[in-house]
Backbone:
């Protein structure tokens, strides 16, 4: 690939990156901007992100309308307190309340004794809904419309003339949202009619009060109203203040445990578990993941362009040179044997044997005396008598004019034994 081609590719990648930055990096209008990397609907009172409820918790702490603030981190059976001298308030805000039926029974007993429960969610405890609705699975009206803006109001005479504007913002963009409202024909007729506490400007009810024994249960169908991003706006903050004024004063116990499902796999879940989403949909709703995907794709394209071409073949490792000295000696020995030159063969073997000792043990000599033999025996750890026999045979056979094959074989065997057993 030529230099001009590479420059064209890099320029194209930069243009694509700028286009992606334009479409995915925009922050929208300044009035809707909420600087954050996490747009997950946590509804956690400690979360200061867009969909946490930290601001509402601070309002509860500072409003002076309620007593001590408690946080429920485990099942209600373990942590929900009931002080007979005060109004205890079970408080929950979340996308779904994952309360089990046995826990819902416990909560209703709690309310029946004269306490209060407030739940703002898009899915309510199934067992409680069975107590007040004909169809406990479908509480909301089917004619709920999707819109980006909703105007809410209260039914109280002193507040009925006021309107509170909500705009649905996600990832710093105004988006469409379904604003749930209750189906008022679904309430059980033999019970005391519920009190319609709040609605939108189309008179669709989203805030109700239900009597149970000596206490009250409040349902709100739009938990988005109480998130940080909603309460940052003046209308959202004032609406939350007036909503709290509808609840009898007492001690708030905020349920954080049932924000998540604790059903074991295989158990029935009437309220429905987590909504399943595709992986790509999940990534596209989180800007950091979108940018990670973009960088991954751009990196893969650049790698394919610049590293995808044929690379130089791998050079094989060079083989180590093999010491063929002994093979050479054996070949010469065979030649000498065939020609009958036994004396030359003996001198060759003696020279080779002395060279082996010199190279292996660094012991040099021109004559194999006792001192030399002692050193070789110590370093090679071969029996001294064998070494003596070898050198005696060298001396003996070199003085003989005719050497038999048996004598050569004996010398060869002793030398081979030394080679195989020396250290």
Residues:
């Amino acid at each position: 690939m030529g230099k001009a081609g590479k420059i064209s590719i890099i320029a194209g990648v930069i243009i694509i990156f700028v286009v992606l930055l334009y479409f995915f990096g925009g922050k929208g209008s300044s009035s809707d901007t909420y600087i954050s990397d996490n747009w997950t609907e946590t509804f956690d009172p400690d979360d200061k992100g867009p969909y946490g409820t930290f601001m509402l918790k601070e309002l509860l702490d500072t409003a002076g309308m309620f007593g001590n603030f408690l946080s429920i981190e485990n099942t209600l059976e373990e942590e929900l307190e009931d002080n007979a001298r005060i109004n205890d308030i079970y408080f929950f805000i979340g996308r779904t309340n994952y309360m089990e039926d046995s826990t819902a029974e416990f909560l209703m007993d709690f309310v029946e004794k004269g306490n209060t429960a407030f739940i703002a969610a898009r899915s309510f405890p199934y067992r409680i809904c069975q107590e007040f609705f004909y169809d406990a699975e479908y509480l909301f009206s089917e004619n709920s419309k999707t819109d980006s803006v909703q105007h809410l109001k209260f039914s109280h005479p002193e507040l009925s003339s006021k309107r509170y504007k909500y705009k649905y913002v996600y990832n710093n963009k105004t988006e469409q949202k379904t604003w749930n409202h209750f189906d008022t024909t679904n309430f059980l007729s033999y019970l005391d009619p519920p009190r319609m506490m709040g609605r939108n400007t189309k008179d669709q009810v989203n805030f109700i009060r239900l009597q149970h024994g000596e206490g009250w249960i409040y349902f709100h169908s739009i938990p988005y109203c109480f998130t940080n991003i909603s309460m940052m706006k003046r209308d959202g903050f004032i609406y939350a203040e007036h909503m709290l004024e509808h609840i009898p004063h007492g001690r708030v116990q905020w349920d954080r445990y049932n924000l998540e499902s604790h059903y074991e796999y295989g158990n029935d879940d009437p309220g429905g578990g987590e909504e399943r989403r595709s992986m790509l949909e999940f990534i596209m709703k989180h800007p950091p993941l979108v940018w990670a995907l973009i960088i991954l794709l751009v990196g893969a394209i650049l790698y394919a362009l610049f590293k995808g071409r044929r690379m130089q073949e791998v050079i094989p490792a060079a083989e180590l040179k093999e010491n063929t000295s002994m093979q050479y000696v054996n070949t010469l020995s065979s030649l000498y044997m065939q020609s009958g030159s036994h004396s030359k063969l003996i001198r060759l073997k003696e020279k080779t044997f002395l060279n082996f000792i010199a190279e292996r043990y660094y012991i040099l000599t021109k004559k194999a005396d006792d001192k030399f033999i002692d050193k070789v025996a110590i370093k090679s750890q071969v029996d001294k008598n064998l070494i003596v026999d070898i050198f005696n045979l060298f001396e003996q056979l070199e003085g003989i004019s005719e050497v038999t094959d048996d004598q050569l074989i004996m010398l060869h065997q002793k030398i081979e034994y030394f080679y195989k057993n020396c250290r």
